[in-house]
Amino acid sequence: MSRLPTPNIDMSSSNVFDMESQHGLRRCIYIAAFLLVAMPLVQGLSGLSPLFLGNVEWRLKASTAMSGVLMVPFAGLTAMLTLAKFTQNKNVARFVGAFSLLCGVVLLVADPLFVLDAFQYKSIVKSQVMEVYNRTMLITGVTMLTYTLIYVYLGLSALRSAKVVTKHAAKGTKKVAADESLGLLIGQEYGEK
């Protein structure tokens, strides 16, 4: 029986998450993360058409439907931010921060409106289903509030991460410049050993 050759994989700590050199893999992860963000939002919003913003019942159904969709985009944004952090890509981190904060602000505006709609609609709910209605509205309200908090937190973390990447990039440039000047003082060109 012949043995299969063992692959030569370098698992040293410096190469495990080296995404800089793996352009194809990095691109695939960004595309998958983008699809995790875009597809549930598009499907959720398309299921809400036609828009009846003046109808309380439609607004409650829309809030309930969207509260079930918001976790997958959060996972996609988190994956994008994680990859941006590994590759020190401040533009992607800024995009994730801005988009997450936008989602958080929209949810922050929608939360009180949802509560007002729930109380307004409660007057026409039949007494036989009142317990189910109360439980559903409580779960949806807590879910929306939770999503509001995690989207705002992700947005702030991403923007803070973009600042850290910028600071590290500036320190790296200063270090290279200092190393080059040291080489010139010693009489060697930078990079020679």
SSE blueprint and pairings:
Blueprint: H1 23-46, H2 56-67, H3 71-87, H4 90-122, H5 130-186
Output the radius of gyration.
Answer: 25 Å
The mean pLDDT is 79
Helix % is: over 70%
Which stretches are poorly predicted, pLDDT < 50 over at least 5 residues?
181-187
Termini separation comes to: 48 Å
β-strand amount: under 5%
Contiguous helical run count: 5
What can be said about the biggest beta sheet? none
What order do the helices and strands follow?
HHHHH
Tell me about this structure.
- The chain has 193 residues and is an all-alpha fold.
- Helices cover 74% and strands 0% of the residues.
- It has five helices and no strands.
- Residues 181-187 have low confidence and may be disordered.
Short characterization:
The protein is an all-alpha fold. The protein contains 5 helices and no strands. Helix 1 (23-46) runs antiparallel to helix 3 (71-87), helix 2 (56-67) packs across helix 4 (90-122) and helix 3 packs antiparallel against helix 4.
Question: Which key phrases capture this entry?
Answer:
elongated, mainly alpha, 193 residues
